[in-house]
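Q: Hi! New to this. If I give you a protein sequence and the SMILES for S-adenosylmethionine, can you show me the bound structure?
A: Yes, paste them in.
Q: Okay, here:
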Amino acid sequence: MRYIGNKENLTDFIYETLKDNGIEGESLFDFFSGTASVAKFFKEKGFKIYSSDIMYFSYVLQEAYIKNNGYPEFKKLLNKITVIPTTLIYKNYDLVLTYLNNLKGKKGFIYQNYSPGGTKELDKPRMYLSDENAMKIDAIRSTIEEWKKEELINHNEYYVLLATLLESVSFYTNVAGVYAAFSKKWDPRALKPFEMRSISLIEGNQQHEVFCADSMELLDKVEADIIYLDPPYNQRQYAPNYHLLETIAKYDSPDIYGVAGLRPYDEQKSTFCNAVTALRDLEIIAKEGNYKYLVLSYNNEGIMQEEDIKEVLSKYGDLKLIEKTYGRFKSHSRTKNAAKKVREQLYILKNSYIREF
Ligand SMILES: C[S@@+](CC[C@H](N)C(=O)[O-])C[C@H]1O[C@@H](n2cnc3c(N)ncnc32)[C@H](O)[C@@H]1O
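A: Thanks. Here is the predicted structure of the protein with S-adenosylmethionine bound:
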């Protein structure tokens, strides 16, 4: 999924860096889980995972990829619905997606608020999704909810279908990366007919724990060998930037506002989007967290300054900073065409006050 700060391409670097520095463990707390890419990677490496995020759509992904261990059978549902398989080899999960992909579109909350047809009365009709795709998403989302209500699908099946929907939606939205604004012209990908695209689930037999919470509130509830921190790097809050995914995940018909149709997000503001409160909370995590190693991903353009981070963290143990120059170039407005590389940073703190687990 396209997501600001997605660490999918950095997991190997993180893992190798930890190994090179002699950091081992059996459990990891992905404190700012987002797309759950780090949690997924470490789950596959055999770690017991705890993960959390303040966004509900992230929680849906965590339920599907982390807590759920494999492809659910959808037994009860498949006794009730009729689907003709489209391939010779298929999983029950694929059958359910085929069924959902063949539903007739429906004019629900997403159509009425995020497609041009549904918002034609507005000064600027919203162009997040084509009319047809918005109706398809409404039909699929409401069917999943009905199945849950009628107990035709269990907990894992529900979250696997929701995660599939969220991952799929991001291929068809008419946005330039984030959802804070829609594009004024149609991106060709947004005009393709919407389809639920199957996602790769991780087999396993360990019990993992996932949360939708301000992770600061979990500090005294979770003990893990490694706490992995990947906080927001700048003032941009995640909630308004991913409001549409949140609304599809919750499907709670919120009182939306503004040109972009934002949902209220007072409860989902992150203290890590402000340098002072970010440093304050970083120190609380370092001080009160139950961990052997605290690993912070950050970069040299973040709102917390390197010297301040070092000062805060080094009070609680041995601190190392490992850097990797990232392939992303950033053009500078003052020196036009000049390019600047971003340094991806990994702060590793070995807790000198390790409590017995
Ligand atoms: C840089 S992103 C994490 C990206 C993630 N590592 C990935 O690979 O997708 C930061 C995440 O922190 C979440 N967040 C911010 N403040 C939070 C808090 N206090 N508690 C829980 N999650 C928070 C945001 O919603 C966002 O998903």
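A: The beta strands are 27-30, 48-53, 209-212, 223-229, 290-299, 317-331, 339-351. Let me know if you'd like me to explain how to read the tokens.
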